Amino acid sequence: MDISIIKIQDHKSPVTIVFLWGMMGVGKSKTGKRLAQKLGWKFVDTDALIEKQTERNVAQIFSENGEAYFRQLEEEVLLDAVRLQHVVVATGGGMPCDRNLASIMLNAGLCIWLEAEPKFLASRLSKGIETRPLLSGCKTETSLIVRLSELIEFRNPFYSEANWRVQAMDLNVSNLAQAVKQLSVR
User: Fold this and answer.
1) Exposed site from 7, 23, 54, 97, fewest CB < 10 Å?
2) Taking all residues of the chain, what is their mean pLDDT, rounded to a whole number?
3) Per the confidence metrics, is the pTM higher than 0.70?
4) Coil, strand, or helix at residue 73?
5) Tens digits of per-residue pLDDT, 146-175?
6) What number of other Cβ atoms are within 10 A of residue 111's Cβ?
7) Is 90 helix (H, G, I), strand (E, B) or coil?
8) Which residue in 17, 6, 2 sits closest to 107, CA to CA?
């Protein structure tokens, strides 16, 4: 299936770093790995880096230290990532909601918002809610969809600052890689 890239705003050329934005469960990590492979670039997952550095998962960090501490760790990881070249970065879902971090990413490379509807996300997240601190308390599919809808309503204005918007359900990584390659040629 062909992808439809909606170009929201201009970006810095040539592109040597791509940031994937979007809600949890949208497929940033999976897409990022595949996109990096097609581009011949490295792949970085900010949540995975935080977990490796702290030797704790995201849920443990939220539980033991709170969200503010986790967001501080995200900033540290991002500042390391923007120094890299030829890399695809899967960000945590809340990272672009910090205007400072969003600005850093927009100035460093191409930001792509992978957009999805709450029902699509719920179908992908229903079996791993315990690892998602912001979804704790969602015991039914309906409560999960309601919570995801709330998060989407809050986050979409931030995500809409990305350079491109792509529907996750229609995503063709080969076509996305071709579009990125056109901007990365020197």
Assistant:
1) 7
2) 89
3) yes
4) helix
5) 989 999 999 999 999 999 999 998 889 999
6) 26
7) strand
8) 17
Cα distance between residue 155 and residue 112, in whole Å: 14
What gap in Å lies between CA 136 and CA 59, rounded to an integer? 10
Tell me the two tokens of residue 14.
């040539």
Low-confidence spans in the chain with pLDDT less than 50: 1-2
What tokens appear for 73 in the block?
């760790």
Please give the residue range of the domain that contains residue 75: 6-184
Q: Provide the domain count of the chain.
A: 1
- 120/124 Cα distance (integer angstroms): 7
Q: Spell 128-155 as b/e; 16+ CB within 10 A means b.
A: ebeebbbbeebeeeeebbebbeebbeeb
pLDDT at residue 140 in the model? 78
The reply to whether 43 falls in a domain is: yes
- 111 falls within a domain: yes
Residue 1 lies in a domain: no
Would you say 184 and 22 are in contact if contact means Cβ atoms under 8 Å apart? no
Question: From residue 103, how far is each of 22, 44, 83, 87, 157 by CA, in Å?
Answer: 16, 19, 15, 18, 14
- The CATH number that applies at residue 155 is 3.40.50.300
